Amino acid sequence: KSANPQWREQFDFHYFSDRKDILDIQVWRKDNKKHEELLGTCHVDITALPTKQTNCLELPLEKHPGSLLMLIAVAPCTGVSISDLCVCPLGDPNERQQISQRYCIKNSFRDIKDIGFLQVKVLKAVDLMAADFSGKSDPFCVLELGNDMLQTHTVYKNLNPEWNKVFTFPIKDIHDVLEVTVFDEDGDKPPDFLGKVAIPLLSV
């Protein structure tokens, strides 16, 4: 019930050089659970923004009244990685020892914001639901921790896909929940949901 909403939420997007450089933003209105209406869109060219500083942008909505006020910062990505199973970042014993030393009890208060990090190996899925008429699916896996999101590549025409990827997330809140969702890629249409599991960090 507001024409001037304030969200004050922060989202972290991991920008890799092989991805597109445009940030697409959509504003939606909900009447009820079933009805949604698009109130406008805007786009930000990430490559045009100065790095290592917070950019305050007022973005007019295209073909609709209103604007968005956003703070966007482009900074070097630390603590986040995607790698193949054969080059797992924690596979080196020397690196494991350095990390153990970094997070030992006597160093706990050296950097309050450095809580730790989570490493997830996404190996494979088994007996997925068939989402296509051919009796197959084109599955990919999305990992979300807080407002961080990373995803695997798509394995086409397969109900037992193997991804063999290693994902590393910095932990910002020990009470966060890791959500792992499997989708079926559906061309230009929104992906189909194939399943989900939620893992509280405190249970690891």
UniProtKB/TrEMBL annotation:
GO terms for cellular component: synaptic vesicle membrane. Residues 1-59, 93-204 form the C2 domain. The keyword Calcium applies. PROSITE patterns: C2. InterPro entries: C2_dom (IPR000008), C2_domain_sf (IPR035892). One of its GO terms (molecular function) is calcium ion binding. Keywords: Calcium, Membrane, Metal-binding, Repeat, Transmembrane, Transmembrane helix. It is found in: Membrane. It is a multi-pass membrane protein. Transmembrane segments: none annotated. GO terms for biological process: regulation of neurotransmitter secretion. The keyword Heme does not apply. Belongs to the MCTP family. This is MCTP2 protein. It comes from Helopsaltes ochotensis (Middendorff's grasshopper-warbler). The gene is Mctp2.
